[in-house]
Amino acid sequence: MFSKNNAEVIGFLGNDPEVRYSPSGNGVANLRVATSERRKNKDGDYEDHTEWHAVVVLGKQVEHVAKLRKGAYILVEGRLQTRKWQDKEGADRYTTEIVANRVGFLEKKSATDADNEPASEEEGF
Predict the structure, then answer these.
(1) pTM score, whole prediction
(2) Mean pLDDT, to the nearest integer, of 25-34?
(3) Which GO terms describe its cellular component (predicted)?
(4) Virtual CA dihedral for 13, 16, 18, 24, nearest 10 degrees?
């Protein structure tokens, strides 16, 4: 049987990356990426709906991702992973996040461009 676990989002960084290093020097960066879409409400009017995605970046990409800042327009490719953790009261909690294998910085297109497709990735990511 075939199975596939791919996730891809193109959106805006909601805050500066949270970067940590283990005593052995392994880096981890946590990102929050916002994607938006227009939806028609019950009155027939369009409203923007924003979805927030938790992203984890590991390895050599952490150095590049650490340079990004809130509002950056980025592409994230990776896989979905759900992890279990316990809150302060000891209750089990679950978080689903994208474990990135590729993060790229995208240029914003000008408002005069005919379509809403993202421009090419910059080198280095």
Answers:
(1) 0.79
(2) 96
(3) nucleoid
(4) 100
